């Protein structure tokens, strides 16, 4: 329980200071390098967290080869999408303030929820809407 709390608090700390750190880093490095460094640091941090958690390998041997290939493909596609979004967010910090950039980024969650409810006609109660945000 204590270890989980330490991981949670460290994740909150990293999440809270990262916009300010990225803004400072962009004064010295390019947007692309800052995005790459941010991804490497995040992968290293979560690798340590996964190692300390004692969980098993991410792909158990009982899965079929086809299923593993599909998982790897979606991990690569998701990683490319996150990387692209990361580069765009870092680039936005060179044009505006951290606060305005964060508000615009978080506004995407509201737009997705409204898209699902209004356009796709998803059945959504208050609890589901809050969970998506």
Describe this structure in words.
By secondary structure, the chain is mainly alpha-helical. It has helices spanning 2-25, 31-53, 65-93, 98-119, 126-132. It contains 5 helices and no strands. The chain is globular. The model has no long low-confidence stretch (mean pLDDT 75).
Compact overview of the structure:
Helices cover 79% and strands 0% of the residues. With 133 residues, it is mainly alpha-helical.
Which key features would you list for this structure?
single chain; 133 residues; mainly alpha; 2 domains; globular
Outline the secondary-structure elements.
Blueprint: H1 2-25, H2 31-53, H3 65-93, H4 98-119, H5 126-132
Helix pairs in contact: 2-3
Using the CA coordinates, give the radius of gyration.
Answer: 18 Å
Rounded average pLDDT: 75
Largest sheet data: none
N- and C-termini, Cα separation: 26 Å
**Number of discrete helical segments:** 5
Query: What ranges have pLDDT less than 50 throughout 5 or more consecutive residues?
Result: none
Bin the strand percentage. Answer: under 5%
Oligomer class:
single chain
Overall shape: it is: globular
Number of strands: 0
Level of helix content? over 70%
User: Which H/E pattern describes the elements?
Assistant: HHHHH
Number of domains: 2
Q: Give me the secondary-structure category.
A: mainly alpha
């Amino acid at each position: 329980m204590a270890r989980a709390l330490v991981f949670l608090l460290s994740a909150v700390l990293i999440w809270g200071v990262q916009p300010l750190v990225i803004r400072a880093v962009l004064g010295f490095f390019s947007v692309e390098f800052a995005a790459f460094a941010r991804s490497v640091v995040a992968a290293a941090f979560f690798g340590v967290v996964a190692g300390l958690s004692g969980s098993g390998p991410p792909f158990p041997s009982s899965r079929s080869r086809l299923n593993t290939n599909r998982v790897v493909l979606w991990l690569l596609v998701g990683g490319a999408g996150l990387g692209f979004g990361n580069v765009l967010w870092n680039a936005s910090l060179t044009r505006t303030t951290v606060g305005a950039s964060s508000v615009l980024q978080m506004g995407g969650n509201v737009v997705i929820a409204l898209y699902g409810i209004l356009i796709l006609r998803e059945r959504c109660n208050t609890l589901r809407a809050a969970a998506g945000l």
